[in-house]
Specification:
The complex is a heterodimer of chains A (320) and B (446). Chain A is of the alpha/beta class and 320 residues long. Chain A contains eleven helices and 14 strands. The longest helix of chain A is centred in the middle third of the chain and has 16 residues. The radius of gyration of chain A is 23 Å and the shape is globular. By secondary structure, chain B is an alpha+beta fold. In chain B, the strands form three sheets. In chain B, strands 3-4-5-6-9 form a five-stranded antiparallel sheet, with helices on one face. In chain B, strands 1-2 form a two-stranded antiparallel sheet. In chain B, strands 7-8 form a two-stranded antiparallel ribbon. Classes of the chains: A alpha/beta (320), B alpha+beta (446).
Amino acid sequence: MAAVRASGLVKRFESTCAVDGVELVLAEGEVRGLLGPNGAGKTTLLRLLFGLLTPDAGEIDLLGRPLGSAERVSLDGVAGFVEEPAFYPYLSGRVNLELLAELDRSPQARARVDEVLAQVGLAGRATDRVSGYSTGMRQRLGIAAALLRSPKVLLLDEPTSGLDPVGVREVGALLRRLAAEGTAVLLSSHLIGATEDVCDSYTVLRRGRVVWSGSSELLREQAPGSAYRLQTSDDARALELAAQHRGIELVGSGAGELRIAVQAGALDPFVLSLGRAGIAVRRLELLLSPLESMFFALTGEADPDAVGIAEVAEAVLAGA
Amino acid sequence: MSAVASEVAVLGRRRAAGGVRSAFRVERRKLASQLAPRLLALICLLGPFAFAAVLKVQSGSPADSLYGVWVHSSGFALSLVVLGFAGQWGLPLMAGVLAGDLFGSEDRHGTWKTVLTRSCTRRHLFAGKLLAVALFAVGLLALLALSSLAAGALLIGAHPLVSLSGTELSAGHALLLVVLAWMLCLLPMLAFVSLAVLFSVATRNGIVGVLGPAVVDLAVQLLALVGAGVWLHFLLVSSGFDAWHALFVSAHRFYGPLIIGQAVSVLWIAACLLASWRLLRRRDFTSATVSRRPGWVVPVRVAVGSAALIAFLALASNWGPAGVTAKRVDASITPTFNNLTLLQQRELGRVVAPGARLNVLPSCSRRASTPSGPGDWICTLTVFIPQPGAVPFQSTPVTYDVTVQANGCYKAESPPSFVGQQTMRDAAGHQVVNPLFVLYGCFNPL
C-alpha cells in the first residue's frame, strides 16, 4: 500500500493553475524529494496533501484513506509542516508541543515531548518562549512537533531552511533513520543540493506539472553532466587539452580559474591527461552536481532533452 | 440501520467528542496563560471592592445608575449598581477582550496550519474554542457577581433592599433576586462573546474583534435614546442585560421583557455562531488565494455599509407601538411614590397602618413634541391628604423630573423643597437615605 497516493490533482487560483494534473506515489520507508523552482506548485501540493486546500479535481489517499473535505480532514499518522512552522510565541517551546500533543489526543505523544525536544537539540531551550527563538530553532521545533506524532507519513516544506550546516546534516540523518523505520517522507525544496544525500527518489515540478519523476539513480544517469572550477599551473595549456577532450567544455574563465562543463564520465580522462602533460591541478571544485544540472535542465525554460550541460552550466553559473 | 453502521456512528460521535475535548483543553490552557484574561479576572475580583471602598470614604453616590442612591444603605444595591454598569459597558468590553482575538490570533501567528495539521478538524477547533471562551466568560461573570456581593456585604452590609416598586425586600429575598439578576446576564454576555467571535472570524483582525463589541454596544446605547418604537429595542443584542429589572418590580409584575431578552440573546448567539462557522468551514488558511483589492475599496464599502445600517436602524427605531407612554409612566410612578412615602414615614418613626395607601393623582407628560418615547418627562403627583374640616381634601402637588429609558426604567428627581434632602435622620437618629429624593422604577414597555 502506498503511504501517499495523489492522482490527477488540480488546483487553480483565479486564472493561475498552481497544480495541474499531478500524480504522486510515496511508498513506506521512501524519502522523496519534491523539487521545483519558486512558484512551481510545491507548497500548494503540500497544502493539498495536508487538506488545507481543497483540490478542484483529483483524489488524495493518505495511508489508504481518502483525505476528506477541508472541514473534516483526517490526518491521523500524518505530520509535518508547510511553509515555515508556526507556534504560539507567548508560550514556551515545551508548552507548544504539549498543546499539539493534546490536539493529537495521544498519551504517547504527551509522553514524548521531552524526547523529541532532545532529538532536535532544543532540550536546553525548551522553557524559553518561542518569541525568542531564531529561525533555525523554530525549524527544529517544527520538526519536533512533527515527530511527536510518530508519523507514518512526514510532509516537510524546506525543513533545513535557516539551519546551520551541522543542523542540516543532523536533520538529514534523522530523516534517513525515520525512513529506515518505515516512515514515508516527502521533502519539498527548491535546492536539490540540500536533498541530495537524503532522498531515494524525486518528483520535479515546473509550473504546476510533474516534469520528471523517478529514483535518484535514474536522475543521476539522465543528468546532462556537472560543472567544476579548475585552477592549474598552466591554464592556457589546460584549455588546449580541454578542447581535445570530448565532453569537456569551457563555460567561463577569469581570476586565474577556469569553469568547465563536464559530461558524465569525461572528467577522469581529462584530469589524467593534465597530469601526463605536466600540468598541476591546484584546485578542482564542484560547482554544479549532476543532480543539480538535471534539476536546472528540467526546470529551465528550454526542452530538458535538448539541453546540454554546457548550456545549463552557462545559464546557472553566469556571473559566478 | 445495520449493527455495523450504528457502531461506526457511535465511534464517530466518540471521536468527535474527543476532538472537541482536546481542542477545549488546549484553548483553555492558552487563554489561562494570556495576560488579558488574567487582568480581567483581577479586575472582576478587586474592582467591586475598590468601588465599595471609594463609596465608603465619600458621601456621594452614582445616582444616575439604577439603585445608585441606595449604595450606602444596602450591599445588594452595590452589587446591582455593579451589574448595571457591567451590563452597560463592562460585560461587552470583557466579551471583546476574551473572544475578539480568539480566531484572529491564529491568523496573526500563522498557527492555523499548525493546529489543522494535527488530529483535530476545524469543526473540533471551532467548538473547542467556543467552549473554552464560554467557560471563561461564565467564570468571569460569576467572579464579578460574587465579588460584588462580597464587597457589598462586607463593606456596606447585607441590609434589606428597596424594590423598584418602593417596597422593602428582606436580605434573604434580596440576595436571591440579586443572584438571579446576575444569572440573567449570562446569555446576553454570551451573545456579546458570540458577536466578538464573529468579528474575529470575519475580519481576522484582533483589534476589530476586541473593540467591535464595544462599538456595537455604544451604537446600541445611542439607539436607545432615539425612536419611540418598542420592537427594535427588544431585538438589539444588549436587550437581555435589562431583563433583571423585572425581578425587582413588585407592583404590576411583568416578565415579558425578561423572556424576550433571554430569547433574543439565544437568537444572537445562534446567528453569530452560525455565521462564524459558515465563514470558517471553507476558509483557505493558506492565504494563497487572498486577492488584495485596492486600498480604498474596503474602507468605502465599510463606510457605505455603516451609513446604510445607521439609517436603517434610525428608521427602525420607531418600529412598533410606543413602549414609553404617559399611561405607563403614570401607572408605575404612582405605586412607587406611594410605597416610598410610606417607607419614609415608617423610617421617621410614624405609625403606618398595614395596607395604608395615599390618594395620589399622577400627571406625567413628555418634555418634547412627541407625547411618547424615552427621554425627559415631568410628573406632577398630587397627593390628597384627608384633613379634619377640609372640604374634601387638602392637595399637595409634588413635581418630579423623570428620565425614562427605552427599556421602561426611569429615575425621578424632585427639588429638596418638595421632598427634602438626599439624606434624613431616622427615628433612631441615624443618617439614612431619603426614599423620596430619587425614585427608581421600571414598567413593562410591551
